[in-house]
Amino acid sequence: MKKSFLLYFLFVSTAMLSQENLSDIELELIQLSLQKSYSLKNANNDLTIDSIETKAIKQNFIPTLTMNGGYAYGAASINADIPTFTLPISGTELFDGESQFDAKGHFLNANLTAKALLFSGLQVNYGSKAGKEKIKAKNFLLETEKVKIIKDVIDTFDKIELLERSRIVLVESENRLSKEKTKVKAAIENGLATPFEREKISAAELNLASKRMELEGNLRLLHLKLSVLTGQDIGIIEKYEFNLKPWLFTQNDQTYSDRPELEALRAGIEAYEYKLKMNKNHFLPKVAAFATLSYFNLFNSEIKTPYETPITEQPINLDLNYFEGFPAYLVGIGFEWEIFNGLKSNNEIQKTSIEKDMAENKKMDAEEKLKLFEQKVKIEFDVKNQQILLKEKEVKVASNTLNLAIASYREGLINISERLEAESDYQEAMLDYYKMVAMQRQTALELLTATGSLTMNNLNN
Fold this sequence. Notes:
Distance between the termini: 29 Å
Number of strands: 6
CATH superfamily of the largest domain: Outer membrane efflux proteins (OEP)
CATH topology of the largest domain: Outer membrane efflux proteins (OEP)
CATH architecture of the largest domain: Up-down Bundle
CATH class of the largest domain: Mainly Alpha
Strand content: 15-25%
Strand order of the largest sheet: 1-4-5-6
Number of helices: 10
Largest sheet: 4 strands, antiparallel
Structural class: alpha+beta
Radius of gyration: 44 Å
Protein backbone atom coordinates (compact mmCIF):
# COMPACT_ATOMS: atom_id res chain seq x y z
CA MET A 1 0.00 0.00 0.00
CA LYS A 2 1.04 3.57 -0.51
CA LYS A 3 0.87 6.34 2.07
CA SER A 4 -1.13 8.59 -0.25
CA PHE A 5 -3.77 5.85 -0.54
CA LEU A 6 -4.30 5.78 3.25
CA LEU A 7 -4.23 9.57 3.54
CA TYR A 8 -7.03 9.69 1.01
CA PHE A 9 -9.25 7.65 3.33
CA LEU A 10 -8.27 9.55 6.46
CA PHE A 11 -8.22 13.20 5.48
CA VAL A 12 -10.59 13.71 2.60
CA SER A 13 -13.13 16.48 2.74
CA THR A 14 -15.75 16.26 5.45
CA ALA A 15 -18.37 16.45 2.72
CA MET A 16 -17.77 12.77 2.00
CA LEU A 17 -20.80 10.65 2.74
CA SER A 18 -20.74 8.15 5.58
CA GLN A 19 -21.98 5.51 3.14
CA GLU A 20 -18.30 5.03 2.30
CA ASN A 21 -17.93 3.59 5.78
CA LEU A 22 -20.67 1.01 5.26
CA SER A 23 -21.84 -0.73 2.12
CA ASP A 24 -25.48 -1.05 1.12
CA ILE A 25 -25.41 -4.70 2.21
CA GLU A 26 -24.08 -3.74 5.63
CA LEU A 27 -26.72 -1.04 6.05
CA GLU A 28 -29.40 -3.54 5.07
CA LEU A 29 -28.15 -6.09 7.61
CA ILE A 30 -28.10 -3.45 10.35
CA GLN A 31 -31.71 -2.60 9.52
CA LEU A 32 -32.64 -6.28 9.62
CA SER A 33 -31.03 -6.66 13.04
CA LEU A 34 -33.03 -3.70 14.37
CA GLN A 35 -36.23 -5.21 13.00
CA LYS A 36 -35.48 -8.63 14.47
CA SER A 37 -34.35 -7.52 17.94
CA TYR A 38 -36.71 -8.93 20.56
CA SER A 39 -35.54 -6.39 23.13
CA LEU A 40 -36.56 -3.54 20.80
CA LYS A 41 -39.93 -5.18 20.18
CA ASN A 42 -40.57 -5.46 23.91
CA ALA A 43 -39.44 -1.86 24.43
CA ASN A 44 -41.86 -0.70 21.72
CA ASN A 45 -44.65 -2.71 23.33
CA ASP A 46 -43.83 -1.06 26.65
CA LEU A 47 -44.08 2.35 24.97
CA THR A 48 -47.45 1.38 23.51
CA ILE A 49 -48.70 0.50 26.99
CA ASP A 50 -47.49 3.85 28.33
CA SER A 51 -49.22 5.62 25.44
CA ILE A 52 -52.49 3.84 26.22
CA GLU A 53 -52.18 4.77 29.90
CA THR A 54 -51.53 8.42 29.01
CA LYS A 55 -54.57 8.46 26.73
CA ALA A 56 -56.62 6.90 29.52
CA ILE A 57 -55.72 9.84 31.79
CA LYS A 58 -57.03 12.37 29.26
CA GLN A 59 -60.11 10.23 28.65
CA ASN A 60 -61.30 10.99 32.19
CA PHE A 61 -63.12 13.96 30.63
CA ILE A 62 -65.11 11.70 28.29
CA PRO A 63 -68.66 11.25 29.68
CA THR A 64 -69.56 7.81 31.02
CA LEU A 65 -72.91 6.07 30.76
CA THR A 66 -73.84 3.27 33.13
CA MET A 67 -76.95 1.23 33.65
CA ASN A 68 -77.86 -0.74 36.72
CA GLY A 69 -80.94 -2.35 38.17
CA GLY A 70 -82.20 -5.11 40.37
CA TYR A 71 -85.05 -7.08 41.79
CA ALA A 72 -85.52 -7.75 45.49
CA TYR A 73 -87.97 -9.46 47.77
CA GLY A 74 -88.03 -8.30 51.37
CA ALA A 75 -89.79 -8.95 54.66
CA ALA A 76 -89.50 -7.25 58.04
CA SER A 77 -91.07 -7.05 61.47
CA ILE A 78 -91.56 -3.43 62.44
CA ASN A 79 -91.94 -2.25 66.01
CA ALA A 80 -93.37 1.25 66.27
CA ASP A 81 -94.66 3.50 69.04
CA ILE A 82 -97.10 5.84 67.36
CA PRO A 83 -99.33 8.37 69.18
CA THR A 84 -102.72 6.78 70.01
CA PHE A 85 -105.47 7.52 67.54
CA THR A 86 -109.20 6.96 68.50
CA LEU A 87 -111.76 6.20 65.81
CA PRO A 88 -114.62 8.69 66.07
CA ILE A 89 -117.58 6.30 65.75
CA SER A 90 -116.50 3.08 67.32
CA GLY A 91 -114.14 4.65 69.81
CA THR A 92 -111.56 2.02 68.98
CA GLU A 93 -108.07 3.10 69.93
CA LEU A 94 -105.35 2.56 67.36
CA PHE A 95 -101.66 2.53 68.07
CA ASP A 96 -102.14 2.27 71.77
CA GLY A 97 -98.63 1.71 73.08
CA GLU A 98 -96.02 -0.18 71.05
CA SER A 99 -97.35 -1.82 67.87
CA GLN A 100 -95.80 -4.54 65.75
CA PHE A 101 -96.29 -4.76 61.99
CA ASP A 102 -95.19 -7.50 59.58
CA ALA A 103 -94.33 -6.22 56.11
CA LYS A 104 -93.25 -7.98 52.90
CA GLY A 105 -93.14 -7.13 49.24
CA HIS A 106 -91.31 -7.07 45.90
CA PHE A 107 -89.15 -4.24 44.57
CA LEU A 108 -87.85 -3.68 41.01
CA ASN A 109 -85.68 -0.77 39.88
CA ALA A 110 -83.47 0.31 36.95
CA ASN A 111 -81.21 3.36 36.57
CA LEU A 112 -79.46 4.93 33.58
CA THR A 113 -76.77 7.34 34.74
CA ALA A 114 -74.51 9.69 32.75
CA LYS A 115 -71.51 11.40 34.36
CA ALA A 116 -69.01 13.91 32.98
CA LEU A 117 -65.93 15.27 34.73
CA LEU A 118 -65.86 19.06 34.31
CA PHE A 119 -62.83 19.96 36.42
CA SER A 120 -60.26 17.54 37.82
CA GLY A 121 -58.36 19.94 40.03
CA LEU A 122 -55.66 19.99 37.30
CA GLN A 123 -54.86 16.36 38.10
CA VAL A 124 -55.68 15.14 34.57
CA ASN A 125 -53.79 17.99 32.92
CA TYR A 126 -50.54 17.52 34.84
CA GLY A 127 -50.87 13.74 34.94
CA SER A 128 -51.18 13.63 31.15
CA LYS A 129 -48.13 15.88 30.67
CA ALA A 130 -46.11 13.75 33.09
CA GLY A 131 -47.08 10.65 31.09
CA LYS A 132 -45.96 12.28 27.82
CA GLU A 133 -42.57 13.15 29.30
CA LYS A 134 -42.22 9.59 30.57
CA ILE A 135 -42.89 8.31 27.04
CA LYS A 136 -40.36 10.78 25.64
CA ALA A 137 -37.73 9.53 28.10
CA LYS A 138 -38.36 5.92 27.13
CA ASN A 139 -38.11 6.80 23.44
CA PHE A 140 -34.66 8.25 24.05
CA LEU A 141 -33.66 5.14 25.99
CA LEU A 142 -34.90 3.11 23.04
CA GLU A 143 -32.32 4.93 20.91
CA THR A 144 -29.55 3.80 23.27
CA GLU A 145 -30.70 0.21 22.79
CA LYS A 146 -30.55 0.70 19.02
CA VAL A 147 -27.01 2.07 19.36
CA LYS A 148 -25.91 -1.11 21.17
CA ILE A 149 -27.34 -3.28 18.40
CA ILE A 150 -25.78 -1.18 15.62
CA LYS A 151 -22.37 -1.29 17.31
CA ASP A 152 -22.62 -5.04 17.83
CA VAL A 153 -23.51 -5.67 14.17
CA ILE A 154 -20.81 -3.39 12.78
CA ASP A 155 -18.26 -4.90 15.16
CA THR A 156 -19.23 -8.32 13.80
CA PHE A 157 -18.77 -7.06 10.22
CA ASP A 158 -15.30 -5.79 11.08
CA LYS A 159 -14.25 -8.99 12.83
CA ILE A 160 -15.41 -11.08 9.88
CA GLU A 161 -13.52 -8.91 7.41
CA LEU A 162 -10.44 -8.84 9.68
CA LEU A 163 -10.38 -12.64 9.58
CA GLU A 164 -10.93 -12.61 5.81
CA ARG A 165 -7.97 -10.26 5.34
CA SER A 166 -5.91 -12.37 7.72
CA ARG A 167 -6.75 -15.46 5.68
CA ILE A 168 -5.51 -13.72 2.53
CA VAL A 169 -2.21 -12.89 4.24
CA LEU A 170 -1.81 -16.50 5.40
CA VAL A 171 -2.69 -17.91 1.98
CA GLU A 172 -0.15 -15.62 0.32
CA SER A 173 2.49 -16.81 2.78
CA GLU A 174 1.52 -20.44 2.15
CA ASN A 175 1.91 -19.94 -1.59
CA ARG A 176 5.33 -18.34 -1.18
CA LEU A 177 6.51 -21.11 1.15
CA SER A 178 5.17 -23.75 -1.22
CA LYS A 179 7.19 -22.30 -4.08
CA GLU A 180 10.20 -22.03 -1.79
CA LYS A 181 9.81 -25.64 -0.73
CA THR A 182 9.68 -26.82 -4.37
CA LYS A 183 12.94 -24.99 -5.09
CA VAL A 184 14.55 -26.42 -1.94
CA LYS A 185 13.63 -29.96 -3.01
CA ALA A 186 15.28 -29.40 -6.36
CA ALA A 187 18.31 -27.92 -4.65
CA ILE A 188 18.58 -30.93 -2.30
CA GLU A 189 18.57 -33.27 -5.27
CA ASN A 190 21.43 -31.26 -6.77
CA GLY A 191 23.34 -31.12 -3.50
CA LEU A 192 22.83 -27.38 -3.16
CA ALA A 193 20.64 -27.51 -0.03
CA THR A 194 20.15 -29.69 3.02
CA PRO A 195 17.00 -31.49 4.28
CA PHE A 196 17.14 -29.18 7.31
CA GLU A 197 15.99 -26.28 5.14
CA ARG A 198 13.10 -28.33 3.80
CA GLU A 199 12.03 -29.31 7.33
CA LYS A 200 12.16 -25.71 8.51
CA ILE A 201 9.83 -24.73 5.67
CA SER A 202 7.54 -27.66 6.48
CA ALA A 203 7.38 -26.53 10.12
CA ALA A 204 6.47 -23.02 8.97
CA GLU A 205 3.73 -24.46 6.75
CA LEU A 206 2.28 -26.44 9.63
CA ASN A 207 2.25 -23.30 11.77
CA LEU A 208 0.32 -21.47 9.03
CA ALA A 209 -2.10 -24.39 8.72
CA SER A 210 -2.76 -24.26 12.46
CA LYS A 211 -3.45 -20.54 12.30
CA ARG A 212 -5.83 -21.07 9.39
CA MET A 213 -7.76 -23.76 11.25
CA GLU A 214 -8.27 -21.44 14.20
CA LEU A 215 -9.20 -18.61 11.85
CA GLU A 216 -11.80 -20.71 10.00
CA GLY A 217 -13.42 -21.78 13.28
CA ASN A 218 -13.70 -18.19 14.50
CA LEU A 219 -15.05 -17.15 11.12
CA ARG A 220 -17.84 -19.74 11.27
CA LEU A 221 -18.81 -18.53 14.74
CA LEU A 222 -18.98 -14.91 13.55
CA HIS A 223 -21.10 -15.87 10.54
CA LEU A 224 -23.43 -17.74 12.87
CA LYS A 225 -23.66 -14.75 15.22
CA LEU A 226 -24.50 -12.41 12.33
CA SER A 227 -27.12 -14.87 11.11
CA VAL A 228 -28.75 -14.85 14.56
CA LEU A 229 -28.60 -11.04 14.81
CA THR A 230 -30.18 -10.42 11.40
CA GLY A 231 -32.33 -13.49 10.83
CA GLN A 232 -30.57 -14.14 7.51
CA ASP A 233 -29.61 -17.65 6.47
CA ILE A 234 -25.98 -18.41 7.30
CA GLY A 235 -25.38 -19.59 3.74
CA ILE A 236 -26.29 -16.11 2.47
CA ILE A 237 -24.21 -14.41 5.19
CA GLU A 238 -21.11 -16.35 4.16
CA LYS A 239 -21.32 -14.92 0.63
CA TYR A 240 -21.27 -11.29 1.72
CA GLU A 241 -18.14 -9.15 1.58
CA PHE A 242 -17.65 -6.38 4.14
CA ASN A 243 -15.58 -3.23 4.35
CA LEU A 244 -12.49 -2.88 6.50
CA LYS A 245 -11.03 0.54 5.95
CA PRO A 246 -10.49 3.60 8.15
CA TRP A 247 -13.75 5.24 9.19
CA LEU A 248 -14.54 8.67 7.74
CA PHE A 249 -16.47 11.35 9.58
CA THR A 250 -18.93 13.88 8.26
CA GLN A 251 -18.92 17.28 9.93
CA ASN A 252 -21.79 17.83 12.37
CA ASP A 253 -22.54 19.96 15.40
CA GLN A 254 -23.59 17.17 17.74
CA THR A 255 -21.83 16.83 21.08
CA TYR A 256 -22.17 14.76 24.23
CA SER A 257 -25.16 16.92 25.23
CA ASP A 258 -27.11 15.40 22.33
CA ARG A 259 -26.78 11.85 23.65
CA PRO A 260 -30.13 10.09 24.10
CA GLU A 261 -29.20 9.15 27.67
CA LEU A 262 -29.09 12.84 28.64
CA GLU A 263 -32.26 13.59 26.69
CA ALA A 264 -33.98 10.79 28.58
CA LEU A 265 -32.83 12.24 31.91
CA ARG A 266 -34.09 15.70 30.93
CA ALA A 267 -37.48 14.28 29.99
CA GLY A 268 -37.56 12.35 33.26
CA ILE A 269 -36.96 15.58 35.21
CA GLU A 270 -39.83 17.23 33.34
CA ALA A 271 -42.06 14.29 34.22
CA TYR A 272 -41.22 14.74 37.91
CA GLU A 273 -41.93 18.47 37.57
CA TYR A 274 -45.45 17.81 36.29
CA LYS A 275 -46.00 15.14 38.92
CA LEU A 276 -44.95 17.65 41.58
CA LYS A 277 -47.43 20.22 40.24
CA MET A 278 -50.13 17.56 40.24
CA ASN A 279 -49.46 16.72 43.90
CA LYS A 280 -49.36 20.38 44.93
CA ASN A 281 -52.83 20.97 43.45
CA HIS A 282 -54.45 18.10 45.31
CA PHE A 283 -56.52 20.57 47.41
CA LEU A 284 -58.51 21.82 44.39
CA PRO A 285 -62.05 20.42 44.23
CA LYS A 286 -63.20 18.08 41.49
CA VAL A 287 -66.43 18.99 39.71
CA ALA A 288 -68.66 16.65 37.69
CA ALA A 289 -72.08 16.81 36.02
CA PHE A 290 -74.50 13.94 36.26
CA ALA A 291 -77.96 12.88 35.01
CA THR A 292 -79.97 9.87 36.11
CA LEU A 293 -83.11 8.34 34.59
CA SER A 294 -84.80 5.80 36.88
CA TYR A 295 -87.66 3.34 36.99
CA PHE A 296 -88.92 1.76 40.21
CA ASN A 297 -91.86 -0.42 41.17
CA LEU A 298 -92.93 -1.68 44.58
CA PHE A 299 -95.52 -4.42 43.99
CA ASN A 300 -97.41 -7.26 45.71
CA SER A 301 -96.64 -5.69 49.08
CA GLU A 302 -98.50 -6.48 52.30
CA ILE A 303 -98.41 -5.05 55.81
CA LYS A 304 -100.04 -7.07 58.63
CA THR A 305 -101.23 -5.05 61.64
CA PRO A 306 -102.25 -6.28 65.13
CA TYR A 307 -105.68 -4.66 64.76
CA GLU A 308 -109.14 -6.00 63.82
CA THR A 309 -112.27 -4.42 62.39
CA PRO A 310 -114.86 -3.52 65.12
CA ILE A 311 -117.76 -5.41 63.57
CA THR A 312 -116.31 -8.42 61.75
CA GLU A 313 -113.27 -8.65 63.97
CA GLN A 314 -111.20 -9.45 60.88
CA PRO A 315 -107.45 -8.57 60.88
CA ILE A 316 -106.64 -5.22 59.33
CA ASN A 317 -104.04 -5.76 56.58
CA LEU A 318 -102.75 -3.17 54.16
CA ASP A 319 -102.09 -4.48 50.62
CA LEU A 320 -100.36 -2.67 47.76
CA ASN A 321 -100.71 -3.93 44.18
CA TYR A 322 -97.94 -1.65 42.92
CA PHE A 323 -96.28 1.68 43.50
CA GLU A 324 -94.53 2.67 40.25
CA GLY A 325 -92.48 5.64 39.22
CA PHE A 326 -91.28 6.41 35.65
CA PRO A 327 -89.74 8.52 34.32
CA ALA A 328 -87.94 9.65 37.42
CA TYR A 329 -84.88 11.76 36.61
CA LEU A 330 -82.24 13.73 38.42
CA VAL A 331 -79.89 16.25 36.78
CA GLY A 332 -77.22 18.25 38.54
CA ILE A 333 -73.62 19.13 39.30
CA GLY A 334 -71.63 17.71 42.16
CA PHE A 335 -68.17 18.25 43.60
CA GLU A 336 -65.68 16.39 45.72
CA TRP A 337 -63.36 18.41 47.90
CA GLU A 338 -60.76 16.55 49.89
CA ILE A 339 -60.04 19.07 52.60
CA PHE A 340 -57.67 16.92 54.65
CA ASN A 341 -56.26 13.54 53.65
CA GLY A 342 -54.08 12.73 56.60
CA LEU A 343 -50.92 14.41 55.16
CA LYS A 344 -50.77 11.85 52.33
CA SER A 345 -50.39 14.59 49.71
CA ASN A 346 -47.61 16.28 51.67
CA ASN A 347 -45.76 12.98 51.83
CA GLU A 348 -46.18 12.55 48.06
CA ILE A 349 -44.89 16.09 47.46
CA GLN A 350 -41.79 15.42 49.57
CA LYS A 351 -41.20 12.08 47.87
CA THR A 352 -41.56 13.53 44.35
CA SER A 353 -39.28 16.47 45.23
CA ILE A 354 -36.58 14.06 46.38
CA GLU A 355 -37.00 11.92 43.24
CA LYS A 356 -36.70 15.01 41.05
CA ASP A 357 -33.57 16.11 42.93
CA MET A 358 -32.07 12.64 42.46
CA ALA A 359 -32.82 12.78 38.73
CA GLU A 360 -31.15 16.21 38.45
CA ASN A 361 -28.07 14.93 40.29
CA LYS A 362 -27.95 11.93 37.98
CA LYS A 363 -28.16 14.22 34.94
CA MET A 364 -25.33 16.46 36.15
CA ASP A 365 -23.19 13.44 36.97
CA ALA A 366 -23.89 11.95 33.53
CA GLU A 367 -23.05 15.25 31.80
CA GLU A 368 -19.65 15.42 33.48
CA LYS A 369 -18.79 11.81 32.70
CA LEU A 370 -20.08 11.92 29.12
CA LYS A 371 -18.18 15.13 28.42
CA LEU A 372 -14.98 13.52 29.68
CA PHE A 373 -15.71 10.36 27.67
CA GLU A 374 -16.19 12.40 24.49
CA GLN A 375 -12.82 14.11 24.94
CA LYS A 376 -11.18 10.76 25.72
CA VAL A 377 -12.58 9.10 22.59
CA LYS A 378 -11.60 12.06 20.38
CA ILE A 379 -8.02 11.77 21.58
CA GLU A 380 -8.06 8.00 21.09
CA PHE A 381 -9.41 8.42 17.56
CA ASP A 382 -6.63 10.86 16.65
CA VAL A 383 -4.07 8.46 18.11
CA LYS A 384 -5.50 5.53 16.14
CA ASN A 385 -5.29 7.52 12.90
CA GLN A 386 -1.63 8.27 13.55
CA GLN A 387 -0.98 4.64 14.46
CA ILE A 388 -2.53 3.52 11.18
CA LEU A 389 0.02 5.68 9.34
CA LEU A 390 2.82 4.08 11.35
CA LYS A 391 1.47 0.58 10.75
CA GLU A 392 1.32 1.31 7.03
CA LYS A 393 5.01 2.25 7.12
CA GLU A 394 5.75 -0.96 9.02
CA VAL A 395 3.96 -2.95 6.30
CA LYS A 396 6.00 -1.21 3.63
CA VAL A 397 9.26 -1.90 5.48
CA ALA A 398 8.28 -5.53 6.13
CA SER A 399 7.32 -6.00 2.48
CA ASN A 400 10.64 -4.62 1.26
CA THR A 401 12.49 -6.74 3.83
CA LEU A 402 10.63 -9.86 2.70
CA ASN A 403 11.42 -9.23 -0.96
CA LEU A 404 15.06 -8.64 -0.06
CA ALA A 405 15.13 -11.81 2.09
CA ILE A 406 13.65 -13.91 -0.73
CA ALA A 407 16.28 -12.63 -3.16
CA SER A 408 19.11 -12.97 -0.61
CA TYR A 409 18.13 -16.53 0.29
CA ARG A 410 18.11 -17.54 -3.36
CA GLU A 411 21.59 -16.04 -3.69
CA GLY A 412 22.73 -17.90 -0.57
CA LEU A 413 23.42 -14.71 1.35
CA ILE A 414 21.14 -15.62 4.28
CA ASN A 415 20.03 -18.90 5.81
CA ILE A 416 16.53 -20.41 5.89
CA SER A 417 15.84 -19.17 9.44
CA GLU A 418 16.42 -15.57 8.39
CA ARG A 419 14.22 -16.09 5.33
CA LEU A 420 11.37 -17.49 7.44
CA GLU A 421 11.81 -14.75 10.01
CA ALA A 422 11.26 -12.14 7.30
CA GLU A 423 8.12 -14.03 6.21
CA SER A 424 6.84 -14.06 9.78
CA ASP A 425 7.60 -10.35 10.24
CA TYR A 426 5.63 -9.50 7.11
CA GLN A 427 2.64 -11.57 8.26
CA GLU A 428 2.72 -9.85 11.63
CA ALA A 429 3.01 -6.38 10.10
CA MET A 430 0.05 -6.98 7.76
CA LEU A 431 -2.11 -8.46 10.50
CA ASP A 432 -1.19 -5.63 12.88
CA TYR A 433 -2.20 -3.11 10.23
CA TYR A 434 -5.64 -4.69 9.73
CA LYS A 435 -6.10 -4.97 13.49
CA MET A 436 -5.30 -1.28 13.85
CA VAL A 437 -7.86 -0.41 11.16
CA ALA A 438 -10.44 -2.49 13.04
CA MET A 439 -9.53 -0.70 16.29
CA GLN A 440 -9.84 2.68 14.56
CA ARG A 441 -13.32 1.73 13.38
CA GLN A 442 -14.29 0.63 16.89
CA THR A 443 -13.05 3.96 18.26
CA ALA A 444 -15.00 5.76 15.53
CA LEU A 445 -18.17 4.00 16.66
CA GLU A 446 -17.43 5.03 20.23
CA LEU A 447 -16.98 8.63 19.06
CA LEU A 448 -20.29 8.52 17.20
CA THR A 449 -21.89 7.11 20.33
CA ALA A 450 -20.27 9.80 22.49
CA THR A 451 -21.89 12.54 20.40
CA GLY A 452 -25.25 10.80 19.97
CA SER A 453 -24.64 10.46 16.22
CA LEU A 454 -24.80 6.69 15.84
CA THR A 455 -28.25 6.43 14.28
CA MET A 456 -29.59 4.87 11.10
CA ASN A 457 -30.35 8.33 9.71
CA ASN A 458 -26.73 9.39 10.08
CA LEU A 459 -25.44 6.10 8.68
CA ASN A 460 -27.68 6.45 5.64
CA ASN A 461 -26.72 10.07 4.92
